Amino acid sequence: MAVFATSLRKKLGLNPGDVVAVMLPNCPEFPVVAFGALQAGCVVTTINPIYKELEVTHQVSTTGPKVFVTIPPCYETVVKGLQNAKIDAKIVVIDNPAAPVPEGAIRYSEISESGEADYDLLDKVEKKKDDVAFIPFSSGTTGLPKGVEITYGNLLAAVAIMQNEKNSYPKLTQGDFQDVVPCILPFFHIYGLVIALIGHLAKGCKLISLPKFSASLYLDVLDKQKPTLLYVVPPIAILLGKHPDVKAEHFERVRNVICGAAPLADSDVHAILEKCKQGELYVKSPTIMKGYHKNEKATKESLTDDGYFKTGDLGYYKPETGLYITDRIKELIKVKGMQVAPAELESILRSHPAVQDAAVIGIPHEIYGEVPKAFVIRKNGKETSAEELQSFVADRVAVFKKIEEVTFVNDIPKTTTGKILRKDLKKMYA
Predict the structure, then answer these.
(1) How far apart are CA 325 and CA 266, in angstroms?
(2) Domain AMP-binding enzyme C-terminal spans what residues (predicted)?
(3) What is the pLDDT of residues 329-339, one digit of tens each?
(4) Which of 60, 244, 246, 422 is the most exposed place for a label (fewest CB within 10 A)?
């Protein structure tokens, strides 16, 4: 890791504060790249490796990376995304015998394995609690995704919470004991990054990185690696309960299966209304982001002056039994545990020459939880089909954002200010 950090500074010419974009699946190189960049004093922005050109363009336009680390299959997408954004970044590609490094790219092995670590240089890097370490991107509930500034203080607080036995599932590695954790939750996502990767490395756990989920691969890991902890999203929990190849032996060493969360230490939930009255939940915690990257307006809309984060969740509090979540204010669709913003899909649909207007909602799906459904108004005199629009969107977004259904309508219900009435659309669908 220190060799990689030194190479970023000396061979690639980066300075503290420069941004390194990391577009990798879960793999052994991910922590070396991410933590090596931090050791060099850089800021890391993580990108989903199944993103398309348009999505990469938006993220690099916002963060302006000087170096971009990826895998061979993503290279062309990265090149086009950087060109669109007019960003001149050096591209480092992970060496893979099955997929040669493209011409013009820098081999990962050249900067991670050759040379020596310069600890005198690296030890001079100063980091403060309020300095930004990571910039993952949100799902963008009211528009395009936004960069979320995660500070070193946020990371330290999260690790401290996981060190607390009351809030933590992994146990410290001691003697011949070591927790074994399959990592299917993506490291580019904040939960996979902070909880699955950083939190478990801090306890010395053995992590098994799965670059992509498949039932056969996951069950093979359960069979051969004998994990002790499983972190899953609802679709995987359903698979474990229903798949015909799941056996009791797969869980012989499993101590916990985690799907959800426990109360977090040092968190303060603010009740806007009186007890048992429904209202929006505000949360204050040392793990809450610093703000949205280069987006002061969105930051002010999400964080109060006294540091509370507006969750977008509706709920109420009963002193005897606790806090209840009842609904969402923010308009997100949860697909296979990933958040999809209707506004992003609507913007793409409206860019189609035959579309006058569009609205997107989430509809139930037995396996995925929810999937996007679009309601579309055609332009006068223009013809298009559901299949054409589905393909149009699929060419521009990651696969989990693809639109499952399209219904053509004459009107989309809106408020007097033009806000889409999604609940009315859901009633129409039902």
Answers:
(1) 20
(2) 344-419
(3) 777 898 988 88
(4) 244
